[in-house]
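Entry:
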Amino acid sequence: MPAKPAVPVRAAGRSVNLTAIPPTMSQISASLTAILDLEQLERNLFRGRSPKSSWPRVFGGQVIAQSLYAACKTVEGRQPHSLHAYFLLAGDPEVPIVYEVDRLRDGRSFTTRRVLAIQKGEAIFAMSASFHVEEAGYEHQMPMPKVPVPEELPDREEMVKLFSAPEHNPLQTFYQRKRPIEIRPVELERYRGGGSLEPKFNVWIRAIEPLPDEPAFHQSVLAYASDLLLLDSSLIAHGATVFDRKIQAASLDHALWFHRPFRADDWLLYSQDSPSTSGARGFSRGLVFDRQGRLVASVAQEGLVRPRSDLG
């Protein structure tokens, strides 16, 4: 199995400054370790930090991941199988986030936790998570889409070159930013303004460095990654993207189900579609497959996708 990072970066006592010097890929990966290195304040109370960046609000996937990991720290002998969450307020990356875990139920087969993420005395995020003992039972799954393998697709540096034209500046900026999750989209035609506008989108994702073997860590990392591009699929049918400055986009809620074990530091195919967009809200779904074609997780999300009238 992949080795653990040699020196984890601790976030408990301070903010993680990844912008003071150009970060190496190992330092960026260590930020995932730092993000999930929660400080335990009380039996059911944890504190998380945000990596410093130029972004004015906390990334939603970070709050999902930290909330899930906080819940996992209060459960023994079983793994999470689902979470359901609402984004309430934008988080401030300069302020620590306190996670309050409510132990709702500890049953023979299932355990339920509720988590509130709090900043400045206000709840910014609320999540319920359910845990299940390992059991044998019926099995079936949807097949994985037939798509190119990640090695056949452009990497981050190639994506930056592909979208160097001025009209692609927001997209280029997105891929220029080094992040702990590597992203390789399959259907690039939608970003070129051509091809099918069918609301489907496939993307390969993985953590850029080996992660610890703890299953809850990998589940929390997938929770982090699951919020990266899902909302964008709700705009495909309209020839738009969340990278368009004329669109105000924000995640409203998020649901995630874990079906089978997986590693987040190996390639996962995130197959997304959008059944509906209406009333300034886009609804998107995602199926996550490992390289062997096993369905390991499912995701659903509704988000705000509002045309900005103030920009004409």
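The longest strand covers residues 295-307.
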